[in-house]
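Quick one: co-fold with flavin mononucleotide.
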Amino acid sequence: MKMKADRHKHRFFRVVSNRKVAAKTWELALEGDTSDFTAPGQFVNIAVAGKYLRRPISVCDISGSRLTLLYDVVGEGTEVMSEMKPGDTADVLTGLGNGFNLAVKTEKPLLVGGGIGCAPLLMLARSLCREGKRPVVVLGFNTAADVVLKKEFEDMGLDVYVSTADGSEGTRGFVTDAIAEKNPDFDYFYTCGPLPMLRALCERLAQPGELSLESRMACGFGICMCCVLETRSGLKGICKAGPVFPKDELIWK
Amino acid sequence: MEMRDTSVSLSGVRLDNPVIPASGCFGFGYVMSEYYDLDILGSISIKGTTLSPRAGNPLPRVAECPDGLINSVGLQNPGVHKVVSEELPKLRKVFHKPVVANISGFSVDEYVEACRVIDGAEEVGIIELNVSCPNVHGGGMSFGTQPESVAEVVKAVKEVVTKPLYVKLTPNVTDIVKIACAAEDAGADGLCLINTLLGMRIDTKTRRPVVANKVGGFSGPAIFPVAVRMIWQVASAVNIPVIGCGGVSTADNVIEMMMAGATAVEVGSANLVNPYACKDIIEALPSRMEKLGIASLSDIIGAALPR
Ligand SMILES: Cc1cc2nc3c(=O)[nH]c(=O)nc-3n(C[C@H](O)[C@H](O)[C@H](O)COP(=O)(O)OP(=O)(O)OC[C@H]3O[C@@H](n4cnc5c(N)ncnc54)[C@H](O)[C@@H]3O)c2cc1C
Ligand SMILES: Cc1cc2nc3c(=O)[nH]c(=O)nc-3n(C[C@H](O)[C@H](O)[C@H](O)COP(=O)(O)O)c2cc1C
Ligand code: FES
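Sure, here it is.
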């Protein structure tokens, strides 16, 4: 048993670019070994200078050795991230989490993203398209200045519906209002976004689906128990058993 | 480079090196075999286990701090019976050395029963009695803060176990030496210190405590000096081995803690931010020893203690 090869999941990436793409959202492009990622919806835990804990950020897209993250600047850690420069080294734990389930039986998937929760849906849409499926995409934001990824989804030839809380773009209201208005035909949904949105979707959509959840994390790889959720099949670590859970696994309190 | 001897011995249990991942910061171990060969470790202290399964505290359970974190996991674990029947066998597949079994309880009877069960598991080399977890209301805290209750639980557990019994002390006391001596007098084979320091963070945007439990245990590099001080004080006063713990993240930290009187050293939070923390430390030990002119690590145990 000695000398078993390491399964490296702690890697160093090179920052290619880091730019502001919306009012509070930045896009960080990294170059490195992306081979640990096996599914869209997985995440990295990225070290930020001067902070003890890493920051969990979803994979937005992967193309060869290019790893793209999309993040909102919401606090000190993401502020530091926004100061990373091309050529800098990014220290990341890769291949974290289960990711979205592509083996699920669906002919007409619906993707619903709320705010920065849209990020992991881009790579998901690419994977679904590769399998010959054409997902309908619904994206919800507070205001037009926050809108991200709309063009990227449209460039894939997909129908994209946007809602904004203030009505400055697309349907006024929430993603549920956009879904009610556009009434897309779907048999399964994939979603990521703020908890109230996820809950509203679970309550209103009769179709089966799966949701990507968030939690404050310490390790991000399943050893500290800081991120544990009660599901219908017991206590599960969001970072390792999740972050994606089937709708019928969740217990809403 | 000539061979450096990193081995140490805890109550007859020989460790290839003094580095042990601390309880709660390595799960039940096997998840970490995705990262490296666990057999390089001295031992592994498993997640704190109680007699009955525990769901733990509500989320959020973690708050970031300068050079550390606060956790309020609340001793979530599947209960000692499942640990023995499921978790330890899973760990055995990837780790082939004696394990440190960290046990918590909420009454003397519970400690005794949980320790009796874990004592029967062949994987276990040392039992580590957690009398210090600050997370649970009315829980461990009360035992670890009074010499009398520490003595009571140690005496009762000693009667039912065959394996070395180490008592893991809480730093949240006025006089740690008094508690340590009470454990030694009651028959403890060794001590482990320190557990987390009681701490709190408040979210200035919401004006509410960050962790749902309001308070939690503070750990990480920030507590290293507190740990070194307490280990030094305790090692000066007792004649049983001390496992040092608290804020360790480098080979030099390990050596410093051993000089303060620790025979072995547990590494906790460092694993959470660097999954290779223990591996990095173990690999760095020989060259660090060479630089410091140390041939055998066991020679430096207590080197800084008053003679
Ligand atoms: C699986 C997962 C995927 C995520 N993907 C993305 C993404 O693609 N893009 C993005 O912008 N954000 C994402 N987040 C949220 C992101 O982790 C937080 O916004 C970020 O950690 C905030 O850090 P900060 O230092 O700026 O904020 P602060 O509030 O200063 O952070 C303080 C502490 O709280 C934690 N924290 C604060 N908010 C959150 C949160 N919402 N979720 C988890 N931890 C939090 C921080 O990590 C840090 O430990 C994801 C979270 C998880 C769990
Ligand atoms: C997330 C987490 C969970 C912990 N769980 C336990 C536990 O179950 N039992 C225990 O005795 N100590 C527990 N501890 C305390 C550690 O074992 C250690 O004593 C403490 O964190 C100080 O060491 P460090 O600074 O190296 O982390 C926990 C610590 C953390 C951070
Ligand atoms: S964040 Fe450590 S177990 Fe999930």
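If it helps, Confidence is low (pLDDT under 50) at residues 1-7 of chain A.
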